[in-house]
Structure formats: structure tokens, C-alpha cells
Design goal:
This protein is an all-alpha fold. It is 67% helix and 2% strand. The protein has 2 domains: 15-61, Orthogonal Bundle (Arc Repressor Mutant, subunit A), CATH 1.10.10.60; 73-197, Orthogonal Bundle (Tetracycline Repressor, domain 2), CATH 1.10.357. It contains 10 helices and 2 strands; from the N terminus they run ααααααααββαα. Strands 1-2 form a two-stranded antiparallel ribbon. A hairpin with a 2-residue loop joins strand 1 (152-153) and strand 2. The longest helix has 21 residues, at 15-35. The chain is globular and about 55 Å long.
Length: 201
């Protein structure tokens, strides 16, 4: 054998299954908010959600998979951040990045848990992680170009700019959690990054 082969099976969930899955994500979110990454166990998630323990594994292959889904749910806060006032792309991007830092800093246990899960080496997280990163890229892409009318920023393709912004977001979250940097420092860093990314405009 030359290597492992991964097969992804996609299935449509019934309404009851969707509700059960949502309860599991909510339970993991609550546990992570209370005690960070160590507080989330499949056993405790099942108990909090009121389901059998084996049920958790029907929807999530691992704790990191479950927490990455929590991260995707948490990232929906960026839908509200997209309306940062100001026509200037630099200010829109800066405002959105700084608002995200503030939200992350206000709940460090949860932020730490989702950063640890989303950056794990667990192959079962790949699909959820890719979806999460795609979603984040799209939201920041909309911040720098709401009408999707430009192809490049300072000579760099917008797709590449979105990737760079995604890395800035990850660096900010790691700075807040793993490195325990003050929120003011991280907020100033993302503000500087916004100006540099947008070509100093």
C-alpha cells in the first residue's frame, strides 16, 4: 500500500438529526466558554446535550472536529461585523479586524479552545477547517471590496489578499490565547496590518 485513502461520505440529515447536531455544538460551545479546551470532552458534551455518548460520534469524529464546528458557528459573528461604517476600505477592514479581536478577547476560554482545535493535526478536521477558513476569507473579502468590483489590491490579486487577512486573523487569535498578549497590543497589530494590506491608503 502506498498510503492512506480517505473517503468522505456526505449524507442529508433529517430535521431531528439537525436539531440533535445543533444541540451538540451548543453544548460544546457552552463547555468551551466555561473552561476552554480541557473542559470539552465527548462525555460531557453528550451529557450537556442530553444524548447518549455514542451519539456524539455519529456526527463528529473527534473533539477537535466538534470544536472546529463550534468555531464555524462562532465565526458567524462576522456577519454583523460586515456593516462597519466608513466607505474607505482601510477603515472597513481595520474596524472589522479590531471588532473581531474585541469579541475574541471577551471570551478567551472559547477562543483558546477553537484555536487549538482548528489548528490541530487531526485529519478529521480538514473539511470543517476548510469551510471555516473559506467563510472567514469571504467575509473579509467583502470588507475590502463589498461590490466585488476589483481584482487586485496594491497589485496583489484579491484572493491572495484574503489569504493574508486570514493569516492575520489567526495570528491575532494565537496572540490573544497562546501568547497571552494584551488585547490593546493585538488590536493595534491588526490595525497596522489593515493599513499595510491595503497598500497604505
Amino acid at each position: 500500500m502506498t498510503g492512506d485513502v480517505r473517503i468522505t461520505v456526505t449524507r442529508t440529515l433529517s430535521r431531528d438529526q439537525q436539531a440533535r447536531r445543533a444541540r451538540l455544538v451548543q453544548a460544546a460551545h457552552a463547555l468551551a466558554s466555561e473552561g476552554g479546551y480541557p473542559a470539552v470532552t465527548m462525555h460531557d458534551v453528550a451529557d450537556r446535550a442530553g444524548v447518549a455518548r455514542a451519539t456524539v460520534y455519529r456526527y463528529f469524529s473527534s473533539k477537535d472536529h466538534l470544536l472546529t464546528e463550534v468555531a464555524a458557528d462562532w465565526a458567524r459573528v462576522m456577519d454583523d461585523l460586515a456593516d462597519v461604517p466608513g466607505a474607505d476600505p482601510v477603515e472597513r477592514l481595520r474596524g472589522m479586524l479590531e471588532a473581531l479581536v474585541a469579541i475574541a478577547a471577551d471570551n478567551l476560554p472559547l477562543t483558546s479552545a477553537i484555536v487549538q482545535a482548528a489548528t490541530s493535526g487531526d485529519a478529521g478536521v480538514d473539511d470543517a477547517r476548510n469551510e471555516l477558513f473559506r467563510y472567514i476569507r469571504e467575509r473579509f473579502g467583502a470588507a475590502i471590496d463589498p461590490d466585488r468590483t476589483i481584482d487586485a489590491v496594491a497589485g496583489v490579486p484579491v484572493d491572495d489578499v484574503e489569504v493574508v487577512i486570514g493569516h492575520v486573523v489567526l495570528a491575532a487569535l494565537i496572540g490573544l490565547t497562546t501568547l497571552a498578549r494584551p488585547r490593546e497590543e493585538v488590536s493595534a497589530m491588526v490595525g497596522t496590518a489593515a493599513r499595510l494590506i491595503m497598500g497604505g491608503r
